[in-house]
User: Fold these one by one.
Assistant:
Number 1:
Amino acid sequence: MAFKGKVVDSKTVLIHLLLCLVIFYSLYYMIGSVCFGAFKLDHFDGMIPFDFKTEPAESNSKYLVNLLSMELTYFCSGLLFAAVVRRWVWDYAVTVTLLHVLLTSLVMLEFPMVWQWWLALGSGLFLMICNGQLIAYFTCQSDQSYPFTSY
């Protein structure tokens, strides 16, 4: 059972990765600003994608906004990644998440050690992969070069 897919050059992969990063952070800020408005918080800070230091508590509105923004961003990103890359959504999702952890560490000047943040990140990544791969699978069923339909 050999793989019969096309090999993609590095330039295309980098362009797709850049597009996925732009989609991810654009969505994060858009969803974050809507959540800030919905929760009627007093000021919107630009650190929302990188903030893991907010005290995790049910009564903390800023924490709930950060959590909701992260999960909705990951959910929606998977759907849009499928439109950009059409296949291998899981690969781009994992890569964007690893780059997000790296950027978060650089911006906050500290490695995230809060287990609630890692749990939210992991569940968001799972949502992104599942949604994106399902959309890619159903939209690429007629494409013979799609790896899951060529067996």
Number 2:
Amino acid sequence: MSFIPGQPVTAVVQRIEIKKLRQGHNLILGFSIGGGIDQDPGQNPFSEDKTDKGIYVTRITPKGPADAAGLRMGDKIMQVNGWDMTVVTHDQARKKLTRKNEDVVRLLVTRKSLEDAVKHSMGNHPRQ
């Protein structure tokens, strides 16, 4: 999925709610991210056209909070708790995800399998 920064985008999204795990004074999400408008999109293994500067999930901790919530490696994070994540730096994304005063993170993510499923279903049914 590619788009022009600052322009409306149409995407098939899934809502994922992750309850952070408390470990002492730390709140653990159980995943890592890559990408951002300040990063080289050519280094992003999940960007199909190597121009996408979005925020992607690069690692999931097995049996961690993100894994239990259904987040997958390669998911593109579109929103975090209502905040647009399509044109943010890596550090801005990290800060939105790790806010200390939020025990729950609500994400809107898109993934290739969601888009493919919609395209497939639209192809099987004539348009009205």
Number 3:
Amino acid sequence: MKSFTGFLVVLGSFVMVATAGNFYQDFDLTWGDKRAKIFNGGQLLSLSLDRVSGSGFKSRREYLFGRIDMQLKLVAGNSAGTVTAYYLSSQGPTHDEIDFEFLGNTTGDPYIVHTNVFTQGKGNREQQFYLWFDPTKNFHTYSILWDSRQIVFLVDNTPIRVFANAERKGVPFPKNQPMRIHSSLWNADDWATRGGLVKTDWSKAPFTAYYRNFNVQGSTSSRYMNGAWKSQQLDAYSRRRLRWVQKNFMIYNYCTDLKRFPQGLPAECR
């Protein structure tokens, strides 16, 4: 059994935490009855979906800035109509949220990675991507790097999206509300696959996704993270990888959707 490792540093009135996580210790299974399960001494978690219900979990701790890594192996085979969501979120009508959503597809067709950022309850900042591998064959690492200047979405340490702080343009940025880590597997066949044209094939249920190797370096203090994460800028190689992903695998970008925004693109896109 892999042992829980972690350290906690208390500095003044705030806490910085770095953990190589244990699902028993770090998360609560929040819904789905026995469809959410923890195995291997807390090192492996699964979520399942059947015709009756999906399932989900959330972190016990809240974070304000940090880097969150999770390895996922997505639903294999015909996953059309299903969504596996992995995201950070605060609570309330003006909540902040940072989303990875994996939209299932028919066997042989690629998953779509749907990303979004909500600030003060407002989202509509979608970018979507195909992946350059089959995310159902093996575990892959999906990461969110979040500081006061930017949010970076990464897949196997390759950046796929950067959402920069554009407060100088009047765009709110999530920097004041601590967020919990959430994940869920649910049926969304009214929209998830080809706009809802392809429905969930319940004869293939249960649908199951797997999680392991959760790791977080985070804080409940913006004061600490502003100092600790100054070095977390994309280097030249990472910027080249970002351009490679966006050129070859991006399939939707709200910042180029003129039909959706006939009165003008959002301020952060200009």
Number 4:
Amino acid sequence: MFIISTTHTHCTLSRISMGVHTVCVIMSMLLCMSAARAEGACPSPCSCDGGVVECNGRGLTTSSMPTSFPSDTTELRLHNNHLTALPTGVLDPLTSLRKISLHGNPWSCDCSILYLRGWLLKQRNDVLMRNVSCSSPHALQGVLVANLVEEDLLSSCRYWFCDLALASQISLVIFIIIQAILLASVIYFLRRFERLSKEARRTTEESIAGGDVSGGNEYTMIKDRGT
């Protein structure tokens, strides 16, 4: 019976191990297929034909534009939309990109345009640079994005982590002040308690001493009467 039970357990464990292995293989294949499909998928609401991705005239804004494009994209058309900036890094994975159209967008030349400016400068394409100009602010209207001075743009940047750091410092100062007030209050009450304890102890000792004296006087008076 013991031999049969051991053999049965071994077979069961082997089947479980094979089942787990099979499930892992299937999951790996599904993940690979999903990744491959995601890389080659045409983003909505654009249309794709070979390596050409047409997103022009779709009413795209910076927040609604696709965050990724097929890795084999050779031409990307983003003109005649409502783009004010491009999401940071959106064009970096497109190593096969040879042509892009960006004209007809109301580019906002503030801190958010820094990525597009840097990307344009890397391309060294004069025709492309001439088609991308500022629509706002009014002082920079018509200025080519590639010709913007980085220092001027940085002055318009407001980084959330700087605000968070400032808020954290203020909170820390307030916390330290509250802790100091609490510590001072504790020290004050401890000293007051110590003073009251000393006064109570002195009063008790005086009461005891006064009782001893009065008791001694009564004892003397009783002794005198007996005499």
